[in-house]
Give the backbone structure.
Amino acid sequence: MSLLKGAAARLRSLLGRRDAELRANEEFRFHVDMQTEKNIARGMAPADARRHAFLQFGGVDRHREAIRDTQRPRVLSELAQDARFTARALRQNRAFSLTAVLIVSLGVGATTALFSLANALLFRELPVESPDELYGLQEMRRGASSIGPEGRRIPFSRYEAYREASAGVFTGLAAHTFLTLSVRADEGAVPLQGALTSGNYFSVLGLRPAAGRFFVDDDEPSVVLSHRYWQRQFHGDPAVVGRPVHLDGKTYTVAGVAPRGFDGTVVALAIGLWVPYRAHVATDSIAGASWVGMFGRVSNRAALGSADARLSAIATRIPPEAQETTVERAYLAPMSGVPEGLRAPVGGFIGMLMAAGFLVLLIGAANIAALLLARAVARRREVALRLALGAGRGRLVRQLLTESTVLFLLGGIGGIGLAYIATGLIARISLPGVPVAIDATPDLRVLAFALGIAGLTGIMFGLAPALRAVRLELASSLKDGAFSGGTARMRGRSIFVGAQIAFAMLLLITAGLFVRGLQRGLSLDPGFRADGVTIGTINLEPHGIEEEQGRVLQTELVRRVRSLPGVTAASLASTALLTGSSHSNDVRTVAPDSVSLTSSLNIVDTAYFRTMGIELVAGRGFTSADASGAPLVAVINEALAARLWPGRDPLGMRLRRGQEYEVIGVARNGKYVDLNEEQRPFMFFAADQHYAPAMTLHVRAGGPDARIVESIRGELRAVHPDVALEFPMPLARMIGFSLLPQRLAAGLIGAFGIVGLVLAVAGVYGVMSYQVAQRMREFGIRIALGARGTDVVRLVLRGGVALSIGGAIAGAAMAVAVTRLLTGMLFGLSPLDPLTFGAVGGTLIAVAVMASWVPARRALRVDPTVSLRSE
């Protein structure tokens, strides 16, 4: 009764609005006719009189406005009616609604979490004043060079020359470099990530302190604490301003605290404190702490086109710090939180993961579209009845489309909740020795992205079921038990399920390639033995220790460590292999027809080759005879020997790197910076002939790693209590972190692939179950006519196999086109690896056949008598 009353009320409302529209039109025409007669009486031609009447009385615009005023309430009413109808339909089908919302939530949540990470790393501006005015100043150099998180680096003294000469380009030019500081604590010196900066660092960034003030001079003996470190270490006590802190054996005064949210200019790298450069480093050297990156606030963005030429002219006028170094040019690069050279790789990697998450969303959307098609079949009588009563097909399409869009938007809201959980886990990511701070909390941009893709996907995948639902014959659809368009609907559902299988195939092949590539990377021979080696860096440069005393301290530390229980070997090197860091320099042969190239290098002591298990294929390693003042010697690898002296014995040959060196040994080729690298030229120099204040201790020992690290710390405290052991950890673990992108991709894409596989199998099961239900009479007749049960099962399975094979072929074709982009991450594995393609395809087809087995068994339970009676 209430439904009838509601229908009557709506009918009266519609009739009332229609009457109002008619009255408005009649009144308008009456006034126009009256004005036309007046114009004719004034002597106007009838046509001109009518036109002027329209213009005098408001013309067509007023007429259209009147029509819009009458239509506007109607449109709003229909939208409200669609919303109420959708809510009622979703409540009546709670199981379907919850399933659809959960499926969409998984896809939207995965995609949104990754987009939120991309937003935090790539799109979010630095929390400084007018970040679009900040540009990094980069130099292209030949000879001595250095690249770090700050970009291309130069000696601080060279920055000082730039600061004076580039005043017309920048309103302020600042310098900074990141390094690990040793902070004195009760348990000894502990490492803290810090930054050395020019005195104008904070003023160029346009920041205001949260407490105290900022330093303003390059040599002011003060520090600025980060807000995060201030809260963690000093519990936000404002009285910390003015207190002394002890860094690298020097005493500084806390000048102030940086504002909340500012952890430095490199996103995800949390700086503990900032120190004026000249207060910490007395003179420049080749060591990393003495090289800085530059950035400035441009004075005129409109003149950026000519700024590079002006800066290049300045760069060539400033004398290089070494004779072998040549500065080719200088240029500006927009400053962002990701270093220039890493922005494209980071963006590409996150984009690949986002694409995988979006594939999960597409698989889920195709699954829901198939379910909507099934619902359309169940609702065909309802739709036919509404059409028979006068409802327009467009109106019904819009209403059905509203249902699917609301479903996907609800899934989008659920996906946002999952994204918040995922980004909370991202915030807990930690890397060895690196203070990571990633704030990937979704902001308005991320929320708009999540709801946008959910709504757009809902419209895309809801349109086909909606159009299919209203494309029926009224007479046959209104009959009891009639079925119209079953074959077409079945074909539509099969297409959606085939798409699910194809997308799942693509995801699983990608994940399989990463897993196989990871296995290949772990099985590669790096040319040395990393197992059992623990590393830790000791940096003496910031402590102002002279070379002679530094050599004594390094020698004493190694002697003490070698005497520790369980230690079988210990040595020093300027760089730990396969940790992502490297030094390089130009080198050439000493001959009239000299060959020149760039080679990576390492400075090592006499025990290094034995400690690391590096095989010498010719000659010898370094000995105590290769001391300071003795003839300079070098050990090179096979790749460098082949490039400099192809087909000749390199022993005794001489090469030039600033000075001349005699080649005394050839080491077997290995991996030096990255497991995925091509064979690179490499050379080793004797530590006794090349003092480096920052060296990495390599200790080969048995027993627990934590015990070894603590023992090393104890010996270092005995040698120098103010020097901290930086980044202590097993070398194998550090190398494992270099495989983090491959591990992350294999894990995430593998998880996405499993979700996609489950959804695809569910789709296959749904299609085959529906087919069996529609063909029950046919199966009964076949059995009555003598068909065996195995024939019926084979008939059903044939459909499932055909569906899964078609989807697998389409997925393999997509994988052939897509996986070529992964070549650089697979450690030499072919992106068309037949084992991966075959294993994934076979597994997917087998699982799809298993999903078809249950409906096939159900076909055997049909009663032939019932089938014949119905016929």
